[in-house]
Design goal:
homodimer; alpha+beta; Arc Repressor Mutant, subunit A; three-stranded mixed beta sheet; DNA-binding
Chain lengths: 144, 144
DNA sequence: CACGTATTGATACTTACTATCAATTAGATA
DNA sequence: TATCTAATTGATAGTAAGTATCAATACGTG
């Protein structure tokens, strides 16, 4: 039972660093988010926190996305899914069968961006990349 | 005034090849889509075709996405945007200021996927990549 | 502890669709 | 080219994922 810095604490610090107030509601959303392991929706969190207004959940999730505490990604059909962000500068693989989300780092993507910088006249301000997979366990369990 | 095969014709053929019926409404949606140069929303098309039901516009756009006639991509906040697909196997750059969409090919992305194949146990079934930029003309016009 | 501004929650609204289902129609077949 | 049937349509209503509004509340600086 040590008092080592927790991910939760980091998330709160990130919000503080952004000049935001730390309210009970924001603590609750952060706690609910940090408890999650895979992807989750805003409604998941909202349903889990009946004491926190729906609008506040959405607002807080957006703050957490901006603070790089969580990522907002999209399923193939565009449905948004949030996922805790553990690794810096990563991308996601999403299993289209079970919804499992993994983070992976690949510097090759950064190489794509650098080469694009040379080709276009504009300035790159961001990017998004998702790889859709059928994960190992899904392949094994229902071998089609 | 020759009768060279048009993009429109190709789109219709793609629908036929998928075993779908070619209706007047589908022709209208295809024509409206092919007339577009940049990104557009489903509402854009629907507003342009008052004679075609809204639901039919959405349904047809989905068919055209499946047939690779158009792409559905997302702005940084997740807002969906459709864009005509001219080049095979490409990705998109989206100007976050003016909304201009360009296609680019980069085989490096495929390299990312191949290396990922080695790292994970699953099977890759798709991917999405968007690069957000401030395009040349936006940078010039309002130099911040 | 007081005070001012950020934040909240209830409500209503918006956007981007999807489900339903009776009416219509494309296009295969006779 | 008439028939027939399954695919398609459109009107309507519903869903999912948020955003706008604004009066009431509470964080945290001083």
């Amino acid at each position: 039972m040590t008092t080592a810095p927790t991910a939760q604490h980091d998330a709160i610090t990130a919000l503080e660093d952004a000049g935001l107030r730390i309210t009970g509601q924001r603590r609750q959303v952060v706690a609910a988010v940090e408890r999650r392991d895979g992807g989750f929706t805003a409604e998941d969190i909202s349903g889990q926190l009946p004491g926190v207004g729906r609008a506040t959940v959405f607002r807080t999730l957006k703050l957490l996305v901006n603070a790089d505490v969580i990522c907002k990604l999209a399923l193939p059909d565009g449905t948004p899914i949030y996922s805790p962000s553990r690794v810096e500068h990563h991308h996601h693989s999403v299993c289209t069968t079970c919804g499992a989300i993994e983070e992976f780092r690949d510097t090759t993507v950064e190489r794509v961006l650098r080469s694009l910088t040379r080709e276009i006249e504009g300035e790159i301000v961001g990017h998004r990349m998702e790889v859709f997979i059928r994960c190992g366990s899904c392949l094994n369990s229902q071998a089609v």
